[in-house]
Input
Amino acid sequence: MSEMSRPAPNRWRVLALWLAGIALVGTAGVLLAPSPKAPDVARGGAEPVELGVEIHAPVVAARAVPNLARLPEASTLGTVANAPQDATAEEIPDGQLVHPTEPVPVFDQPGGAAIAALPTTQLGSDTWVPVIAEEPGWVQVLLPSRPNGSTGWLSNQDNTLDSRSTTDRIVIDRAAFRLTLYRDHQQIGTWKVGVGTPAAPTPAGRTFVLASMTDAKQKFSPVIFPLGIHSATFSTYGSGPGTTGIHGWPSTDVFGRRSSDGCIRVPADALATFTNPLDPVPIGTPVLIR
Output
C-alpha cells in the first residue's frame, strides 16, 4: 500500500483514549504534570496546558533526645566532631537568625542523629545563629564550635526557636587589610585593620558575631566581639578556647599589617560604629572572612 493510500488515523479514537487515561490517573489520586516545552508552531503556537497539583514535602519529625546534658555543647568552648561542614563558604548568609529559648538539640540532618546541644547564651550574650538552609520544619545554622565551618540542623516544630533578621553584613578582606560594614545593602563604613601573622593567620570562611563583651583583665579594647570561628594555630589562647574576635587596639601602627595572633584589630571609630546605641551591630550578624 502506498503512503498516499493509507487510511487516516481515527482522531476521535485517539482523543477518547487520551481522556480515558486522564480519568484513570485522576481516580488514583495523582495527577502528573508534563514538563513545560516551547510553543508548537505546527499547531498555531499554542502554549501547552500544564496539568498538576501542588505537592508539599512532608515534615520530618525530630528524634526524641532524652538527655541533652550527654551531648557536646555547640558553643565556642565546645567541639562537635560529627557536625556537617559548611559547603558554601564564599556566600554570606542572608541575615535570617534564630535563637533557642531553651537548650535545644542539634542534628546532623533533618530527622537524623542528635550531635550537640545549642545553649541559650554564649559568653554573656543571647545565642543568635545564622540560618544557611531550610527544609519543612527545619533550619540549618552555622555553629560557633570547633571545628571551623561546623553546621547543624535545628527543629522549629516545637516553638523553642525565636527568629529575627538583620540586613547588617561584615566582610573582612585579609589581603587588603580591610573590614567593611554593610547595612540595607549600603556601605556604612570601611576601615583598615590588622589581621593575623603568617604564623597565626586569621581563619577564612563565613561566620557571625557571637557576642559582645568587656574584659576588665585587658586594656587593649573597651569591647570585644568574639566570632563563631577559631584560630587554627592556637587550641587555647589567654586561658580561652582560641576564639577569633574583632577588637580595638591602643596604637595605630597595627592597621594595614599582619600584626595579630589571628584576631581582627580595628580602629576606635569602627568600634564606635559597631556599638552605636541607636543602631548597634546585632549579635548574629553574618561575617565573611576572605
